[in-house]
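We store chain and fold; example below:
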Amino acid sequence: MSQTGHSLLVMKFGGTNMGDAAAIRHSASLAARSVDEGVKVIVVVSAMAGVTNQLLKIADDAQKGDIAAANDEIAAMRTRHFTAAQELGASPDSAAVREIREMHETLRQAVYGVYLLRELTPRSRDLIVAFGERLSAPLMSLALEQSGRRAKHLTGGEAGILTDTNFGNAKPLPTTYERIKDRLSGFMAAGVIPVVSGFMGETEKGAITTLGRGGTDFSATIIGKALHADEVWGWKDVDGVMSADPRVVADARNVDTLSYGEVMELAYFGAKVLHPLAVTPLQDSGIPLRLKNSRDPDFPGTLVQAEPNNDQAHPVKAVTAIRNVSLINVTGAGALGVPQVVASLFDAIARVNITLLMVSQSSSMSNVSIAVQSGDAERTLSALREVGGDLRIEEQDGVAVLAIVGSGMRGQKGVSARMFTALADADVNILMISQGSSELNVSVAINGAEVDQATRAVHAAFRLNEAPVAAD
């Protein structure tokens, strides 16, 4: 057993920790540090910072017919990966450099196919966007090998992640866990560090899929469950989960423990903490997830575990906001009292696959309000218009959703009142209110221009800048 008390860790490194050769070398040293303590480590990597967006742009350019712009981006990307490989000590004729060259060639061909057809299917988009992680894994492998460790990089599919065919947002199939164990155990036994391309898997027919935005966290927790890891560590460039966005609230502080439920609520309400589904594989197995700061590796960070750590003085753990939201109000005298009408509204929204941030129905039954991301508003409106009937549909944009999250709210009176008082005192008007039956969050829709002052007011009202009292 190591000094840290762990025998097996899955470590995920995000985009900023894979930004360039220096960042990758530092990340490799964090993995090596645990290996030197006798811990077995599996590394899961994101694409180099900014590459995923670059690949999405390349795919869109090709679809629009601008192949020159797409090829320029591919060339720039190739140079960036070559430079990193060289700085990590790869010679121009090494296997790593050859592999990076071949992958860029395959990428170029895939993009050219999109350009010829002027069609970007979800399946082609997944193939293209997964190149980010496929290209960064050899770099991490290289950095580990240069530091005297043995490493082997694998795509998500090669590591055993088998998914359904829901391209762009694929879910692992039940057989995934057994497959991962079969594929990775041999490397571990031989003292080789597996470096897995995050964010991606493959279908039973071998087509590449992606697990949704932020899916590298999801890859890491899937692998963690499969191998019964002691913990999954997510390395970031901040001290774990903060009580609010530190760019908005100067005295935001690190939250030391959260439950799986709390962290899912935070992810859902816009805190860029984790893929919203990332903790689901851990929930079944009770494996903790630790979010750590790569700049301060000895800082414990935030521990995400099954049980909430409730402190009566701090029922709320964090306040978070989703910007660029649109409210859509559907009114129809009498019509909305009929359950079928409400059902058909939600059915129409489900068909176009829109995530609802909040829902509220007035007691007179004549009004339903829903909050969606502004980018989804147009599709939501046209879906609702197809429902027909004498419904009046109005959109209000420039809205934000502010949410407080914490399991300590359950059963504690006056939490909502404190939030509403703080907002009223800050002169913030509430447009809509929603509280989940789980009592893990209360969310309100407010004017988008007031979101920063609202966040600060609520953070102060719940004294989230104070250290929590340790539970007995």
User: Anything to note?
Assistant: The radius of gyration is 24 Å. The mean pLDDT is 91.
